[in-house]
Amino acid sequence: MHTKLTELNKRIRIGVVSYLNTKPLLYGISRSGLMDRVELIEAYPANIAKMLLEDSIDMGLVPVAVIPQLKSPQIVSNYCIGANGEVASVAIFSEVPMEEITTVLLDYQSRTSVNLAKILLEKYWNKQVTFIETTEDFTNSIKGTVAGVVIGDRALEQRLQASYCYDLAEAWKKYSGLPFVFAAWVSNKNLGEDFEDAFNMANGYGLKHIAAVVAENPFAAYDLNKYYTENISYNLDAEKRKGLELFLSLLK
Known about the structure:
- The protein is α/β, with parallel strands linked by helices.
- Helices cover 37% and strands 23% of the residues.
- The protein folds into two domains: 4-84 and 179-241, Periplasmic binding protein-like II (D-Maltodextrin-Binding Protein, domain 2, 3-Layer(aba) Sandwich), CATH 3.40.190.10; 90-176, Periplasmic binding protein-like II (D-Maltodextrin-Binding Protein, domain 2).
- The strands form two sheets. It has a six-stranded mixed beta sheet. A five-stranded mixed beta sheet has the order 7-6-8-5-9.
- α2 packs across α7 and α4 (112-123) packs across α6.
- It is globular.
- Mean pLDDT is 93; it is low at 1-8.
C-alpha cells in the first residue's frame, strides 16, 4: 500500500549521516534512480533521530535507541550499520586502564553508543562511574581518570593517540554473544514496497563497489578497506536482529 506521500510524488525526505561508515550505502543511493524521488538531509545521528521524532524527515539512518520512542517505526532496509566484533569507530578512550576510570564523557552525536557504553560499564565491566553529557568536541578533556565515548570518524583518529581503547561492539559481542546494530534505516510511515525494494538494491550496489568507495574517501588515520569489509557489518541478518532486540530490552 502506498502512502499519500508517494502518491503525490513528493520527495521522500531521508536523513543521512556523513560519517565514513555510511559512504558505501550512500554510494549506491546517489547512483540510483532514487535520487529523483528522495531528498537527502545530512546531520549527525542524534539530530537525525530528533528529526524523525518530529516528522521533519520520513526516514533516516537513525541510532537504534530511538526506535522505542517512535509511534509506528518500520525498519525499511536489509542493511544497517552493525558489527560482529570490533567496530573500530565506537569506543571508550582513556589514558588509564578501565579499573582506574572514574568519569566518562558522553558523545553528544549519538544516543545508541552512549546507551551501549552505560549498559556495558554496568553489566560487562561492573563499574560505577560519573557520566557527563557533552555539547561540543570534548576529546581534549580525555585525560587522567576521565575517559570518553567517541564515535565515528573522530574515533578512528582518536585511536592514534589514546593509551587505551575499549571497543564497544567487541565488548558487546563478549558480553552477549551477539552482533550489535548501531543504526538502521527506520521510517515513521509506510513508504511503499516498490520504494523499499529499490532502496534495498541501491544500498546493496554500494557494498559491491567498496574499492571505489575507498578511492573516493581518502583517509589517513585508518585502513578504510579493512573498516568496510572487516569492522562494519552491513547486512541486517537474523543474528543482528536478535542483538538489536536484546539491546532494546536492556534499554528499558
